[in-house]
Write a structure and sequence with these properties.
The chain is 25% helix and 22% strand. It has seven helices and 17 strands. An eight-stranded mixed β-sheet has the order 2-3-13-10-15-8-5-4. A five-stranded mixed β-sheet has the order 1-12-11-14-9, with no helix packed on it. Strands 6-7 form a two-stranded parallel sheet. Helix 1 links the parallel strand 2 and strand 3.
Amino acid sequence: MADCKKASNLNSIDLSSSDIPTSVSLLKQACMDSGFFYVTNHGICEEFMNQVFTQSKNFFDLPLEEKMKLLRNEKHRGYTPVLDELLDPANQLQGDHKEGFYIGVELPEDDPEAKRTFYGPNLWPNSDILPGWRQTMEKYHQQAMEVVKKTARLIALALDLDADFFEQPEMLGKPIAVLRLLHYPGPISEPEKGIYGAGAHSDYGLITLLATDGVSGLQICKDKDAKPRVWEDVQPLKGAFVVNLGDMLERWSNGIFRSTLHRVLGNGQRRYSIPYFVEPSHDCVVECLPTCQSRENPPKYPRVKCEAYLLQRYQDTHADLSTYNKP
């Protein structure tokens, strides 16, 4: 049975607003409805965002041989080629028609924490080839985290928690934060043939902050069990980020807040996007929050350790590194 499609109407949250109760109310409604919303007046200027997108495009314009020198490593840092990721194997004929580049929390190899699964040194393009590239991405990594923290304070209030709940050391105090540059080269997706820019999936962690270049393609499905599934277009909003909740927040909230299926359909245009995935610390145990359970609504999900959960999800969706011939 073919999918249906319509336009989505997402709430917009002004992060500079002094009317906190209204912001919390709008955010709570969005989190219960779809787990997707826009954030505006977030503090990152348009000029710098344009610079980040220009540097992203500069990397993807490099010859494939040059990009493959930075093929992702076992810590999920570096380049992911087209078709490397398979997000919806039940419905996809082949991997996603996108290429990407992972940038995590930068730690030198001699730092004891660098031994953790998702910490350590990043892979960086040669500064002679892409001058200023590393500095731009590190600056954006830091600024995006500040936007996430502002958003997380509103999410905490919407869950009847203290505003700084997610800033505890085991959460955003020592987060696993991954910036991912994405390029969709442009082939038109054909869902009926199992060909997608990015297959249907939900994100893994706490929240995702998504910057887009204005080219459409992102869709959400609020009811994954519907037949046919109804897919809604999420239109880019100039100057805003799209924020969506991840699986861990759905587990924390006992399913009250939603981590919704989404996908990307290519429409023949090149498309660039930059998701910033934020998860709690490696050792954080995600379990139902006290404010989200009762005798009538007991915990639905088992406790899970962040590191183990993320590692399994990455292994399930990426090609085995041994299949590549490294230059």
